[in-house]
Amino acid sequence: xxxxxxxxxxxxHKTSSYQHTNDGPAPHRPARxxxxxxxxxxxxxxxxxxxxxxxxxAAPKAPASPAREESPTPAPPPxxxxxxxxxxxKQATAPLGWGPQQRDLEAATAAVAKMTVSExxxxxxxxxxxxxxxxxxxxxxxxxxxxxxxxxxxxxxxTATGLVDVPALTxxxxxxxAASRSGGRTWPGLIGVDQEGGxxxxxxxxxxxxxxxxxxxAAGSVPLxxxxxxxxxxxxxxxxxxxxxxxxxxxxxxxxxxxxxxRSLSADPRAVANLSVGFSKGMxxxxxxxxxxxxxxxxxxxxxxxxxxxVQKATLAQLKARDWKPFQAAVAAGSPMIMTGHxxxxxxxxxxxxxxxxxxYAALRGIGFKGVAVTDALNMGAVIGRYRHGSAAPAxxxxxxxxxxxxxxxxxxxAAIVSAVDTGRLPPARLDEAARRVVTMxxxxxxxxxxxxxxxxxxGEGLSARVSALAxxxxxxxxxxxxxxxxxxxxxxxxxxxARFAAxxxxxxxxxGAGPLVNLIGYGGVPVGGDIAVALDAPWPLARSAAPTKIAxxxxxxxxxxxxxxxxxGKAPATGKLPAxxxxxxxxxxxx
Length: 592
Description:
Elements: H1 2-10, H2 34-42, H3 88-92, H4 102-113, H5 117-123, E1 125-126, H6 134-144, E2 148-151, H7 166-180, E3 190-193, E4 195-197, E5 200-201, H8 214-219, H9 222-238, E6 243-244, H10 269-285, E7 289-290, E8 292-295, H11 316-321, H12 325-332, E9 337-340, E10 344-345, E11 349-353, H13 358-366, E12 372-375, H14 381-384, H15 392-399, E13 404-405, H16 410-423, H17 428-447, H18 461-471, E14 473-476, E15 487-492, H19 495-507, E16 511-521, E17 532-535, E18 549-552, H20 558-568
Parallel strand pairs: 1-13, 2-3, 3-6, 6-7, 8-9, 9-12, 15-16, 16-17, 17-18
Antiparallel strand pairs: 4-5, 10-11, 14-18
């Protein structure tokens, strides 16, 4: 599988819809315990290259159909230690095991060796900023030698009609990229964005709107996920982004998972492994760096790290058997970045967020990861109450992080890193290693040509529609024929949801005002009644909904509503299967 990642790049985040804030802790690092040492010894059992995941998306057994294609069987990555013997040219192009080649590492090593401590500190920081003053942010990037900038929704310029101002956004990303190249740096900046689909999309129309990632699990097609990853990333590349913090590689446990939900591709870790690797492959082919998130697994914790620090109570054996499988697949595929989450794991290091835990980074390296380990946003609730005045930044670096995402105060974080090196709290060699990995990745990206060219905004609408059409899942109710005829009523959801439903109904020749009642369930919704209950995000509320017909749509784009109305009118089949259990409805439930 490493081969396709290398070929794709040389010829593949992060948060929910919450807004993030932060400040940093007094240095906090519990002493190593005997239990932690035992964990490190146990990790030796998983240092060999992991077995490749099954070749299908682990969809429920069903008759074969064109919509349920199988993925190729992944191959284990090649050794990443020494360059192959032979000519110097062959040695220069030797793969490192995560995308870049030996020549990229050598160039990065030479560049980092010439940097001051201040410059190195900047190269490991990827901050966000407030508002639309891109010029001020560019000045900060130049002054602190930052690796780049994270773009959030409030940084995206808009038009008077509420759309994204595409020329202005492109100009902003180019200006920020130019700032990242200041000081003699020749590699591109990291211009990052969270663009998963569903509830996590920072850049809206006219860029394509994508359904929730769980749609790919419902559709059950790895090639479709790969196409969607490429389609989404090609539009991001077209407006100047170089990093997309996706896919979410967390396997959800269902309604007890308050954070990930429909951001997860499936509850089956094998399906998540195949689909997330496929999506990453597509992103890389379009020239955008992906990041699998959130190691050691956020889909099986029961509190939200945006607000406080969840505790992952699983044993090491349970983590290996479930939550780590998608990340092992990412490692085997040569993924360039893996994001660590703000999750406390007593089996690894009690009371410490995984993103700032030395034992957790040892575990990540123990499964063979050689690329850039990036933290989740350091301005989230799980971090800001424990690490103040920028102290999370040097603490995460000392633990093993390479790239620090969205510190609450980038000036304080930068100063804290420099101070930590000066006082000996952060070994200079650790900062060098982190900067070298980040620069290696940026040099690699800068010299490689995407397999798929950048695409115009909205060019993925047809593909997004296909994803939704293949994902629609009927839990209960008829599998053929019309659910509604001529007239229908609609309630629930938002005003925008109902307007999109009405437009899709009109296109099918169905008018509103009488007939069966369709009840829409939006993000975080509750069980409903009516004649037809439709879940627009995670399908969990359908479990206790009283409606006799229950449908999971996994999206609220215009294309998703068109797919829904085509099914309701009896003009299209509902081919999706539940990617996770919903109450008594087992994973795999759907029309056959």
